[in-house]
UniProtKB/TrEMBL annotation:
GO terms for cellular component: plasma membrane. The keyword ATP-binding does not apply. One of its GO terms (biological process) is transmembrane transport. InterPro entries: BPD_transp_1_N (IPR045621), MetI-like (IPR000515), MetI-like_sf (IPR035906). This is Peptide/nickel transport system permease protein. Keywords: Cell membrane, Membrane, Transmembrane, Transmembrane helix, Transport. The keyword Transport applies.
């Protein structure tokens, strides 16, 4: 990598850090504007103004917003997001207890969606213009147009309510057998895979088709190379950068889908914890969960940008 590539990568990383700082201010401001607070949620509607004021003072909710934001941001930077104002437990511990569940759900989705999307996208590019290509492309466009919550709701109504093949709740204990685990995760993973596969498939197909239209592929075709050899030995290696970029971008969309799917299937992950925190007006918990999702999204987008820079031959050979 030359100096230009390194400068572009450093600029992307710096931009991601600045974006994360701006996102922290937006997250704090939005959560501060939500109606009600933890004191009202804890004491109920019949609490007197004096009792509410005393509890808000005890929780630190009556301090100026800038001071609370500064303390919260310093704690986040130091790895201490504070305590839940509802339960009093450390926010880090609450998230750590749910994070493995969310990572398992995301990992299963990625393990299924990435190979399937890459295989379908490469096959559609190899036989572009065929019935297979048109069917796959039309199916991808149709599926990506449907939001995750609708896919998840229809899946529950069909497979859990009508056919009774799969459970509507998506969690099993740590001692569950493999078959029970597969049945429990089938619906949420299916709901997430639908959109992820569709997005990744379309971007993969576009990257491979772009290489197949290059002059060197036409030269190979004139020399009598087989379509499989042209794709696997020549086009695919040159398309690895755009494909990796497509994978990173598609997985970034997984973060938004996880929030919806965990809520619909009552899955005990970080997203469900954040939704519960919003209901209880537990702002330190909501802010930390939101920052965790935003940081993961920015990380994936930055990785996609860096891969796009590194894979660009015009930049590498300057």
């Amino acid at each position: 990598m030359n100096a230009l590539v390194l400068r572009l990568i450093a600029a992307r990383i710096g931009l991601a850090l600045v974006s994360l700082l701006l996102v922290s201010a937006v997250v704090f401001a939005i959560t501060a504007l939500l109606p009600g607070d933890a004191a009202e949620e804890k004491l109920g509607l019949e609490a007197t103004a004096e009792t509410l004021a005393a509890l808000r003072h005890e929780m630190g909710l009556d301090r100026p917003a800038l001071l609370r934001y500064g303390d919260w941001l310093a704690g986040m930077a130091g790895g201490d997001p504070g305590r839940s104002v509802v339960s009093g437990a450390l926010v880090g511990q609450l998230i750590a207890s749910r994070l493995p569940n969310s990572l398992l759900l995301a990992g299963l989705t990625a393990a299924i969606s990435v190979p399937l999307a890459l295989g379908l996208g490469i096959a559609a590019a190899m036989w572009r213009g065929s019935r297979f290509d048109r069917a796959v492309s039309m199916g991808a466009v149709a599926v990506v147009s449907v939001p995750e919550f609708l896919i998840a709701t229809l899946a529950v109504l069909l497979f859990a309510v009508q056919l009774r093949w799969l459970p509507a709740l998506a969690y099993t204990g740590p001692d569950a057998e493999l078959a029970e685990l597969a049945r429990a995760y089938a619906l949420p993973v299916f709901s997430l895979c639908c959109v992820i596969i569709s997005q990744m498939l379309r971007m993969t197909r576009a990257a491979v088709v772009d290489q197949l239209r290059a002059p060197y592929i036409e030269m190979l075709r004139l020399k009598g190379a087989s379509p499989l050899r042209m794709v696997l030995r020549h086009a695919l290696p040159n398309a690895l950068g755009p494909i990796a970029n497509a994978v990173a971008l598609s997985l970034s969309y997984l973060l938004g889908g996880v929030i919806i799917v965990e809520t619909i299937f009552n899955y005990p992950g970080v997203a469900k914890l954040m939704v519960d925190g919003v209901t209880q007006r537990d702002m330190p918990l909501v802010q930390t969960c939101a920052m965790l999702f935003c940081a993961a999204y920015l990380l994936l987008v930055t990785v996609a940008d860096v891969l796009g820079i590194v894979s660009n031959p015009k930049l590498r050979h300057r």
